[in-house]
Amino acid sequence: CVRLWPHRTTAEGHFIAILVREGDAEALQVPPWPVSPPRGPARAAWEAFCCEALVRFPSGQVHQGGRSLYLLPQGFPDLRGLRIVQAGLRLGDLARGGFRPAHALALALDPGDAREVLDLAPDDPRLATYLQGGTFQAEGGEGWLLACVARHPVGWARRKGGRVRSLLPPGWRSLVSQPVEEKGHGIVG
Fold first, then answer.
1. Is the CB of residue 116 less than 8 Å from the CB of residue 139?
2. Would you state the torsion angle of the CA atoms of residues 116, 156, 182, 110, taken in this order, to the nearest 10 degrees?
3. In sequence order, which residues have a C-beta less than 8 Å from that of residue 21 and are 6 or more positions away?
4. Domain match, 53 and 114 both
5. Do strands 117-120 and 143-149 pair parallel, antiparallel, or not at all (unpaired)?
């Protein structure tokens, strides 16, 4: 058992314990989650996005809940009756213009999973523009970009007509007005 007290460390306080099962209890058998795969236009929009933006995709089952798509792991248990904020990884939403990927999907990918990667260095002035939700010039073909900082995904961007538009969620956009610098506790590249 390890305890990290907030008044003795710089942490906010944590508790770690190892649980040991005693006896020969049988595992509880829970039926799998009833997956509703996307159909028709939803499936076409999702597949078009995958063909355009992704090389590899994490394994699992794609589930449609309303206008959103989620990735559920194989054998995901049926949790109906429990209050679930979100089941699985949110892949994105179906919109009039097709499929709009979720920020969570970008963060779950490896740069090698995307067809086009916009890899920004921590001292690149375009990073501040991206983090503010702005646009900037960048050469290349049109389409979805996985925006990365030092090969770590930070979100999506869209390139059209030589301009890259940040698709960072508004709540994540920072007030950075200059390139990000390491100050011992900031973003490190």
1. no
2. -60
3. none
4. no
5. parallel
Q: Are 129 and 121 in contact (CB under 8 A)?
A: no
Residue type, 116: E
CATH of the domain at 94: 3.10.450.720
What is the tally of structural domains in the chain? 2
CB contact at 8 A, 115 and 53: yes
24 assigned to some structural domain: no
Question: pTM of this prediction?
Answer: 0.76
Domain with 133 in it: 109-181
Same domain, 96 and 161: no
Tell whether 7 is covered by a domain.
Answer: no
Beta strand 135-137 pairing with 152-160: unpaired
One domain for residues 115 and 96: no
Q: Each residue's pLDDT tens digit in the chain (189 positions)?
A: 666 666 777 766 666 778 887 887 777 788 888 889 999 999 999 999 999 999 988 788 999 989 999 999 888 888 888 888 888 999 999 988 889 999 999 999 999 999 999 999 999 999 999 999 999 998 889 999 999 999 999 999 999 999 999 999 988 886 554 444 544 444 443
Residues 118 and 138 sit within 8 Å (Cβ to Cβ): yes
* Residue after which a domain boundary falls, among 90, 108, 126: 108
Beta-bridged to residue 40, according to DSSP, are none
Phi, psi of 104 (to 5 degrees): -60, -35
